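name: query_chain
kind: protein
chains: 1
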Amino acid sequence: MARDRGLEEVVRDLVAGEAGLTQGPMFGGWAWLVDGNLLCGARTDGVLLRLGKGNDAWALEAEGVEPMVMQGRPMSGWIRVAPDAFADEGFARRLMVAALSFVRSLPPKEAGRR
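structure:
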């Protein structure tokens, strides 16, 4: 999977100024972590967001949003948003606010234990 610099820029704009944020290559794309916990990732097939178990139903109702599937199994609380759906600035912001809220509720991971 190739990186999508345009999607990466959109995500960067949405998370600009967030405390505890790190970023780097992951899963064939680019990923963002908050205090060591994975927040989201971007690559050519869309944006992966971590909303948390039980927090993703509202997002899954939107066109272009699907559950994240890893090795054939859906991952509860994780969604993949198609690039076209993430292009809606208001929707993308709402998704990111929800993801940040969930990830900030998690205990920070110690350096080296990710």
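note: The mean pLDDT is 94.
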